[in-house]
Amino acid sequence: MIVKVCGMRDADNIRELDEKVQPDLMGMIFYPKSPRYVADHSAIPATNAAKVGVFVNAPVAEIVETVQGFGLDYIQLHGNEDVAFVAELKQKTTANVIKVFRVTAEVDWEFLKGFEPHVAYFLFDTETKGYGGSGKQFDWQLLGAYPLDKPFLLSGGIDQESVADILRLKQQQPQLAGVDINSKFEREPAVKDIVKISRFVKQLKN
Ligand SMILES: O=C(O)c1ccccc1N[C@@H]1O[C@H](COP(=O)(O)O)[C@@H](O)[C@H]1O
């Protein structure tokens, strides 16, 4: 199971997470309205994890510049970006794309098909007023009906108590490739509780 820890910013916290948890993916938020916004790219140290930049309806040129300046491995599109936008981005950068959808009972899985050729993963989050980082879960049972081949990451309010439900969902839905954890593991915005994350990851992987 892939583990992505999102909303990282503090250099010491990033080093500690890298050393003690070794997540597969580490996410940095490049959305100015987020309390986890990374304003100073140069403050982020090197890590062993693949680096994911999270963007919300940002222009292609800004994303491409950030990918290059920052050496991002993945671009997470957490806004309302359409297929043409994702295709253009794929032409202009070598980074992999993770496209986010907020899942409700009205979800139209067919709509996602057009994105499939351009993305490495889908990521499913909760529908809220903001774009993400809400700490709220959606009804994961809706993912039982996911009909596509593209693997996806689960996100939205995942906490320490979520492990049993995640493992149950994995048995039901093999396309569940991993989880993305964020606000429920924070001491303050953009500072994660490494002990909590360590415990969660051990339970998930054992
Ligand atoms: O974390 C944020 O502030 C944020 C802001 C805008 C878009 C995405 C954001 N984070 C992503 O939101 C999900 C769910 O987070 P949470 O566990 O509910 O706090 C996660 O994928 C983050 O990458």
UniProtKB/TrEMBL annotation:
<dbReference type="InterPro" id="IPR001240">
    <property type="entry name" value="PRAI_dom"/>
</dbReference>
<comment type="similarity">
    <text>Belongs to the TrpF family.</text>
</comment>
<dbReference type="GO" id="GO:0000162">
    <property type="term" value="P:L-tryptophan biosynthetic process"/>
</dbReference>
<dbReference type="InterPro" id="IPR013785">
    <property type="entry name" value="Aldolase_TIM"/>
</dbReference>
<keyword id="KW-0822">Tryptophan biosynthesis</keyword>
<keyword id="KW-0413">Isomerase</keyword>
<comment type="pathway">
    <text>Amino-acid biosynthesis; L-tryptophan biosynthesis; L-tryptophan from chorismate: step 3/5.</text>
</comment>
<keyword id="KW-0028">Amino-acid biosynthesis</keyword>
<keyword id="KW-0057">Aromatic amino acid biosynthesis</keyword>
<protein>
    <recommendedName>
        <fullName>N-(5'-phosphoribosyl)anthranilate isomerase</fullName>
        <ecNumber>5.3.1.24</ecNumber>
    </recommendedName>
</protein>
<dbReference type="InterPro" id="IPR011060">
    <property type="entry name" value="RibuloseP-bd_barrel"/>
</dbReference>
<dbReference type="InterPro" id="IPR044643">
    <property type="entry name" value="TrpF_fam"/>
</dbReference>
<feature type="domain" description="N-(5'phosphoribosyl) anthranilate isomerase (PRAI)">
    <location>
        <begin position="3"/>
        <end position="202"/>
    </location>
</feature>
<dbReference type="GO" id="GO:0004640">
    <property type="term" value="F:phosphoribosylanthranilate isomerase activity"/>
</dbReference>
<dbReference type="Pfam" id="PF00697">
    <property type="entry name" value="PRAI"/>
</dbReference>
